[in-house]
Design a protein that fits this description.
The protein is α+β, with helices and mostly antiparallel strands and about 475 residues long. The chain contains 19 helices and 14 strands. The strands form 4 sheets. It has a 7-stranded mixed β-sheet, sandwiched between helices. The chain is elongated. One of its GO terms (cellular component) is phenylalanine-tRNA ligase complex.
């Protein structure tokens, strides 16, 4: 109905106001607007959007227009002899009394004599009511009057949008419904000759494909894993999150009184609280090297306790897995050089902030071979980190209970314009390796870093909680570019 009315009217005239036209044909403007947009899309009509602004009454303004303003009602309720405040308030109600008394006093219509309210003029004209009536009828009011009504929240500005219409380049008095497909029936009957087919928009984009997206951490993890594989490393099994203190600490020559073994830094398990499945001969050698030394070491000189070594915990580093792998390697009849790596979760009892979580991912690599030196370690680190895109490296001496010498690894960050710590490294101590049964000329070089820090740098994320945990924005994961490390 609306489309026929528009096309019929445009045969002889133009439509200057779509709102007025909608009212004249008895349809809502929203319905007419949909028809206009459809006709415009096929160039049947030329539609120009027009915008107007007008003032409309609020609900309070409509009440004032109907019943009168509070100041006029206040004045009308005062008898010639005057009336007490309380009686007048009871007569009008609190809201009308409060608003009306202030406005009437401002207009100098009334006077207060102690508790009595009296008229100062004989009659008044309710200009507010009259002005609201004129605005409601579409008349134009002065700026001062508009500002007064707006301040009292009696009117609000309303933006009006409509269309002016005229014939388009493809105007027809009645359009045919365009066919979208050529069917068998059209061909058999021959009516395809008289059909108008809808044009295909070859520039239209296809609907977005709803698919899964890889998390940023997994993208970086895969790239780093590929680097290890390119360098000839094999992955260690890291599926045990729960570890005994023996493999996590004691086998690494970390003393039982070390601060890292405190409950403030480590999550200990209540159930099962301990493990009994430990290699007894190896455990005895570890106990001995802790208490009295050996292999050129004095040890720590304390009473080593088995119950401490048996305590179960959530592993604090993946080096616990490295220890197990090196011990298994030492049990072979013939020593075979190995390159191992792992990328998996570790857990530490740390306060959560923008750069720390209680669980994170550790990247670890180690090489076990004869005659390795600190120079070999530095060379491997330069090769590894250059593939991560970090070619400017510095090394700083550090201390670790299970490596000697030990080095912190720093890389120059061009964006931050400063040196940033990116990892830790060192050579495993003889007190750790020789009790396992490895040959004396076998050394192990190792390094580790977190997965989260390089990921945050690569993706420009400043808060680790936006990368990992319940606050991750899925749109961030969906829209992130594919990770590419190095050059």
């Amino acid at each position: 109905m609306a489309e026929e009315a528009v096309l019929g009217f445009l045969q002889t005239k133009e439509i200057s106001d779509s709102h007025e036209f909608a009212t004249s044909i008895g349809v809502g403007h929203t319905e007419l607007e949909n028809v206009i947009k459809s006709l415009k899309g096929f160039e049947i009509v030329d539609a120009q959007e027009i915008t107007r602004e007008s003032w409309v009454l609020t609900e309070e303004g409509k009440t004032y227009m109907k019943n009168g303003s509070p100041e006029a009602l206040f004045f009308a309720a005062i008898p010639p002899e005057g009336i007490s405040r309380n009686n007048l308030k009871e007569k009008l109600g609190s809201e009308v009394f409060d608003i009306g008394s202030k406005a009437a006093a401002k207009n100098k219509w009334i006077a207060f004599e102690k508790d009595l309210v009296k008229r100062k003029v004989e009659s008044v004209e309710d200009e507010v009511q009259n002005l609201l009536g004129r605005i409601n009828s579409g008349e134009v009011a002065g700026d001062q009057a508009i500002n007064d009504l707006k301040r009292r929240k009696l009117i609000v500005k309303q933006t009006w949008k409509g269309y002016s219409l005229k014939k388009g380049p493809k105007y027809v008095s009645k359009r045919k419904k365009a066919a979208t497909d050529l069917t068998r029936e059209h061909i058999v009957s021959g009516d395809w000759k008289n059909l108008e087919f809808k044009e295909y928009n070859l520039n239209a984009e296809a609907p977005p494909i709803q698919a899964g997206y890889m998390h940023s951490l997994l993208e970086v993890r895969e790239e780093i894993q590929n680097i290890f594989l390119q360098l000839g490393f094999e992955e260690m099994p890291t599926n045990n999150f729960v570890e005994s203190s023996f493999w996590n600490f004691d086998a690494l020559f970390q003393p039982q009184q070390h601060p890292a073994r405190d409950s403030h830094d480590t999550f200990f398990l209540e159930t099962p609280g301990s493990t009994k499945d430990l290699p007894e001969d190896y455990l005895a050698r570890v106990k001995l090297v802790h208490e009295s030394g050996g292999y050129g070491s004095k040890g720590y000189g304390y009473d080593w306790k088995r119950e401490e070594a048996e305590k179960n915990l959530l592993r604090t580093h993946t080096t616990a897995v490295s220890t197990r792998m090196l011990y298994a390697l030492a049990q072979q009849d013939t020593f075979t050089p190995k390159r191992y790596y792992s990328i998996d979760r570790v857990f530490r009892n740390e306060a959560v902030d923008r750069t720390h979580l209680a669980e994170f991912h550790q990247i670890e690599g180690l090489i076990c071979d004869r005659g390795l030196t600190l120079g070999d370690l530095i060379g491997v680190l330069e090769d590894f980190f250059s593939r991560l895109g970090m070619s400017k490296l510095r090394f700083k001496p550090a201390y670790n209970p299970y490596t000697e010498p030990s080095m912190e690894i720093f890389s120059y960050h061009d964006g931050l314009e400063k040196w940033v710590e990116v990892g830790n490294s060192g050579m495993f101590r003889p007190e750790m390796l020789l009790p396992m049964g490895l040959p004396e000329d076998v050394n192990v070089i190792a390094w580790g870093l977190s997965l989260e820090r390089p990921t945050m740098i690569l993706y420009g994320i400043s808060n680790i909680r936006d990368l990992f945990g319940p606050k991750v924005d899925f749109n961030l994961i969906k829209n992130n570019p594919i990770c590419r490390l190095g050059l």
